[in-house]
Amino acid sequence: MRLATFNVENLFARAKAMDTTVRDEGQTALSAFETFNRIAANQTYTPQDKTDMLDALVTLGVLVQTREGRRLNARQFDTAWALLRENRGDFLAAPANAEPHIVANGRGDWTGWVELTVEPVDELGTRMTARVITDLAADAICLVEAENRPALARFNDQLLGGRYGHAMLVDGNDPRGIDVGLYLNAEIEIDWVRSHVDVPDPAVPGKRLFSRDCPLYKLRLPGGTDLYLLLNHLKSQSFASGDPDPLRTRQSTEVRAIYDRLRAGGADYVAVLGDFNKGPDRRDPKQHPTLEALLGSGTPLVSCYDLEAFDQLFDPKDTGRERPGTFQTCSISNRLDYILLSPELAAKVTGGGVFRKGLWGGPDNKKPPKLWSVYPELDAAKHAASDHAAVWVDLDL
User: Fold this and answer.
1) Residues 303-350: pLDDT tens digits?
2) Which of 365, 359, 357 shows the shortest CA–CA distance to 134?
3) How far apart are CA 335 and CA 5, in angstroms?
4) What is 2-13+121-395's CATH superfamily?
5) Where in the chain is the domain with CATH 3.60.10.10?
């Protein structure tokens, strides 16, 4: 069977702030989004809290800064990064003859939130995503950054011709519609699935550990073999809400603990896969900052990249130069996507590689890649299947 992982960067619709060609604009909006929702959860709003939330609403385009002051954005849905939802109670007052101001004095005064505006993914890009999945022909594929299960099912029906018998996704903790899903051939049975969405963060009381989820699937293969999959999308590299490395370290430590418990319970064939959002140290690729629990010295897990049967390039050009990564330019520090295997499962690998035909990945995303081939229809970054390549292994099970 073929096992794969692919960060699809949403199938049909993506948060506008995550799909902008000007990265700094998007990151600024995402930071304001996090700031607003964090402060809005406070039981009591201080004057500084209200100032910070108003500033965040300006950054998000809910409010517009003019020479005369601030006003509501009358065309909010079309032009803003986010929408302000006020379901019950009053949060914001916007009198005609004065600036908007916050009237709620704490979380108990209103029910609502700010949600990011979404827009359709480029149509050709969606078809390129489908083509990658079709050409990859995996029997089981982890899909990172999928919107929801209905989107997975619709994508399978409308663009994959119903190729997969199972389309599974457990909602996670990220409000932006970037969850971790799974496609499986009909012959593979899902015995059970276990979510870890509510695992607490040991370092931050009251917070959940995983940015999305770390769902565990127990699969029964046609021959009766049990295969366990731990799907992951670890903390991003964005500094919008502070240094992300400590949280990613705690997440990878918990993933390892889940793996260890599985092994102690008698599971032989276990794979940990997905987007880990951190590459090796470019100066010393044997070092894996924040992923030591999974990839550091003494780990029982075997990385697909260390297997003799694994080819770094699925479709290499005759350049004599490998690209060891999976994201954008595919440098070693951009090796973000992994398939890690228990020793027994690693012994069953007969082949593997990185599939880059849907990845634009040129310098600054302005020019096509020089070190791998792409689909002929792919002539610009906006039409790429994803910023990520897919990773796959073949298993003799």
Assistant:
1) 999 999 998 665 545 555 668 899 998 989 999 999 999 999 999 999
2) 357
3) 13
4) Endonuclease/exonuclease/phosphatase (3.60.10.10)
5) 2-13+121-395
Give the predicted TM-score (pTM) of the model. 0.81
Q: One-letter amino acid identity for 317?
A: K
Residue 178: band (very low, low, confident or very high) from pLDDT cuts 50, 70, 90: confident
Q: How far apart are CA 117 and CA 137, in angstroms?
A: 33
The pair of structure tokens assigned to 105 is 């004095």
DSSP code per residue over 316-365: B-TTS------BTT--GGG--EEEEE-HHHHTTEEEEEEE-TTB---GGG
In 3D, which of 126, 139, 78 has the Cα closest to residue 383? Answer: 126
Instruction: Please name which of 13, 341, 365, 319 lies closest in space to residue 155, comparing C-alpha atoms.
Output: 13
Partners of 83 in beta bridges: 115
Q: What would the two tokens of residue 274 be?
A: 């997905």
End-to-end C-alpha distance for the chain, whole angstroms = 7
User: Which is nearest to 114 in space by CA: 50, 45, 178, 34?
Assistant: 34
- pLDDT tens sequence across 48-70: 999 999 999 999 989 988 877 78
